Amino acid sequence: xxxxxxxxxxxxxxxxxxxxxxxxxxxxxxxxxxxxxxxxxxxxxxxxxxxxxxxxxxxxxxxxxxxxxxxxxxxxxxxxxxxxxxxxxxxxxxxxxxxxxxxxxxxxxxxxxxxxxxxxxxxxxxxxxxxxxxxxxxxxxxxxxxxxxxxxxxxxxxxxxxxxxxxxxxxxxxxxxxxxxxxxxxxxxxxxxxxxxxxxxxxxxxxxxxxxxxxxxxxxxxxxxxxxxxxxxxxxxxxxxxxxxxxxxxxxxxxxxxxxxxxxxxxxxxxxxxxxxxxxxxxxxxxxxxxxxxxxxxxxxxxxxxxxxxxxxxxxxxxxxxxxxxxxxxxxxxxxxxxxxxxxxxxxxxxxxxxxxxxxxxxxxxxxxxxxxxxxxxxxxxxxxxxxxxxxxxxxxxxxxxxxxxxxxxxxxxxxxxxxxxxxxxxxxxxxxxxxxxxxxxxxxxxxxxxxxxxxxxxxxxxxxxxxxxxxxxxxxxxxxxxxxxxxxxxxxxxxxxxxxxxxxxxxxxxxxxxxxxxxxxxxxxxxxxxxxxxxxxxxxxxxxxxxxxxxxxxxxxxxxxxxxxxxxxxxxxxxxxxxxxxxxxxxxxxxxxxxxxxxxxxxxxxxxxxxxxxxxxxxxxxxxxxxxxx
Length: 631
What we know:
Blueprint: E1 6-10, H1 14-30, E2 37-42, H2 90-95, H3 109-116, H4 126-142, E3 148-153, E4 159-161, E5 168-171, E6 176-179, E7 181-184, H5 198-207, E8 210-212, E9 230-234, H6 238-247, E10 254-257, E11 263-266, E12 273-277, H7 316-339, H8 348-355, H9 363-372, H10 382-386, H11 397-416, H12 422-440, H13 448-467, H14 472-483, E13 487-491, E14 495-499, E15 504-508, E16 517-519, E17 521-524, H15 538-545, E18 551-555, E19 561-567, E20 574-577, E21 583-590, H16 611-630
Parallel strand pairs: 1-2, 1-7, 2-3, 7-21, 8-17, 9-12, 9-17, 12-13
Antiparallel strand pairs: 4-5, 5-6, 10-11, 14-15, 15-16, 18-19, 20-21
Helix pairs in contact: 1-4, 1-16, 7-12, 11-14
Domain FAD-dependent urate hydroxylase HpyO/Asp monooxygenase CreE-like FAD/NAD(P)-binding: 8-188
Organism: Kitasatospora griseola (Streptomyces griseolosporeus)
InterPro entries: FAD/NAD-bd_sf, HpyO/CreE_NAD-binding, L-asp_N-monooxygenase_NS-form
């Protein structure tokens, strides 16, 4: 009888679960019926959801996607070598749980009640997503062939040892797992505060003030923010939205319908007063709550696998962005012309024929749009979208608040009005771009300077700002808190100085010259950037100390360097091992957010050919082929 090979997957959250689903789909083809396989999933948190999507978090925290836009399954638009195994989105699963085997009733009655009434366009709680991911894991386990056994370990992996050509040993709390292949599917990781926060931490300690460094909001310690305390908040993204929920409703306040529309906030008296700002000065755009009026834009069109790029290291804004911007424009105008033809002056075919040969930044393209789209409000202005408060100057704080309130109200109105569904067309194009970058970048590397400032910096920020915003009701809540005097906008390009004289955090914005706000607490409301050398994960920390992994370190010919903090992997997701001269380790693989594949999203919108699904499929097929040879 042949030896049973062993695969150990460290991390049983969405990425590990997605890999298991692809192993179940591909095993009948790639694993002989008489070849056994043992799979061990290791995670201290509940399998399926893992740490980030665990059930044990506040019911106030929600997803930033509608239930119908969340899936863990491949579909007819997935481009992969393995078999497509369709499955329900979160909305479809919630609507008919008994139709999707294996069926097990959700234990938490509050989550069960939410799922029973969940509409496709609702934004679920993270606990509802946890229940869905738990079911996906159980379904994937049930679909494993009979010759594959699955073992779950609620434990932490502390060390990984073994020669490249021999068995690997994964050291848990009291067990050592022998493995032929090991996959690190660790998801988003914590890290110790970096040197950029050292002065702020020392200032807070010296003056007895509170400083909350970048962290996953669900795990951040907010107890030091006292009722009525003046708190400066940097960051207006999703971590900020979660922060506001925990400091308001989480402290007993309530939002109620206002007789004149919108919401009114009823304080509990336990809330701090928040002074909030960021580089853009505005929260992320609200998610749309409508669907496309026209057909789905056929993407990719101008930025895909066949895009011609120059040889040598590339600059993102110079070499990639013009085609990417044109792709966003294509998605936007495709929906405008098909969904709202009465607001256009020429037929779509004529517009597209003229649009096709033009550069995005050409005056001819601008003239074409001006002639074909009469209302300037219907034209796509990416620069204005990116920096909506550029050049803003106001006379006093009251004018700044009025301006920002008007901006948020206009954003809410636009994102809830199907007349503006062209914005959703642009959103689809952005999703396509994200997936195409994952394909292109391994073959066409960027310079160190461009990777730092433009890819990991500007592009990720712009994508999140436009495409990863909160549900609209969150902006309604911000407006209600502002009306209640508990939230004040600071403006764009916010600066925070450490005021030794007053022992306070001094915040200001060029939008309001000569004005500043003093706070006795500071919250950096954004996620910690990747940092392998400061990782809190014990396994990665040990591997780094032992010289078996390293982080991406790019250098330009002029000497400019960039350390991204990401774990170096090859295009097939194998760990690059410094002890092997930087070559891929033949038995170790790493997937997901902390790696140089830069494909962090482990679940996706249906019918978007998600990069993570493609990667999971390719890795599953490679591992199964290798493990078959080990038998």
